[in-house]
Amino acid sequence: MDFDDRRRIVRSTAFFVVALLVTAVVSVAASVAGSSGIADDTGTDVPTGPRYVPTAADHALPTTVAAATGPRVALTFDDGPSPQLTPYVLDVLAAQRVPATFFLQGDNVAAHPGLVRRLHAEGHVVANHAWDHPWFPNLSPQEAEIQIERTNAVLTEITGQRPTLFRYPFGQASPAGDAALGRLGLTGGVHWKWTSDRPGDFQCPGADVLVDYVVTEAADQAMILLHDAGDTVGCPPGQLDYLPRAIDALRARGFTFGVVAPSPVPSTVNGGSRAAVVPR
After folding, report:
1. Which of 33, 43, 126, 180 could form an S-S bond across to 145 if both were Cys, CB 3.0 to 4.6 Å?
2. What is d(CA 222, CA 237) in angstroms, rounded to the nearest whole number?
3. Rounded CA gap, 111 and 102, in Å?
4. Is the dihedral of CA 206, 209, 215, 221 positive or negative?
5. Catalytic annotation on 227?
6. Which DSSP state fits 22?
7. Which residues, in sequence order, are CB contacts of 12 under 8 Å at separation 6+?
8. How far is CA 201 from CA 7, 76, 172, 210, 241, in A?
9. pTM of the model as a whole
10. Catalytic residue among 91, 120, 227, 228
11. CA pair distance 61, 50, nearest whole angstrom
12. What is the pLDDT of residue 70?
């Protein structure tokens, strides 16, 4: 069963139909009102999930981990930010000196701007994952462009930097989406490496299984698909323990960590994406 089937089992078709209608209505309303709709930081970004406590090994790491030779992977997080999961993820990445790439969902960005500011300030790459996670093959050209451009606009307003990377929700490209990306000058869609039968984090398999998933998919230039919002919010909190354990396991195997950047050369590791894993 491929990724599309796995995710579509988790989320119903009705959700996408409603999301499309809401997107069209809200987009028109926002343009008429002339407002970005970004929430006030007060109370919107207070963590509501677990927090990570750095270990003695974390404290022993150098303040900055220099780029090293050897195989390099990128941890990529989709659908966020969320107050339930993103603070823990950022805590781990900060404690273990790991940069990451966040493909952020526009409506969550507008609701939690403080988390976006934090991950940007901590050196992670901010990228576009559409406004409300629609099924792009069902979108008209206008709807596709609104999904992408509206998200880019709110990310630019919050961070002061215009994103250059886009990842399709569910990894499902469309001619309308590709045309919009070309007009807007974004690299997309950025895919990932998932060639094993290991379940993803949104399937709530638990920490042990997810450590195995990350280690199994790791290869030079691999972009590992993870989530810090969406379906994973409903997984048992203990599942989050996979992240520091997976980072330790990859380092023990000689891997280093980078971020995703545009590339003129299609990636043979990540589904032909015109993107590469580079040092941060």
Report:
1. 180
2. 26
3. 16
4. negative
5. yes
6. H
7. none
8. 11, 12, 19, 7, 12
9. 0.87
10. 227
11. 23
12. 82
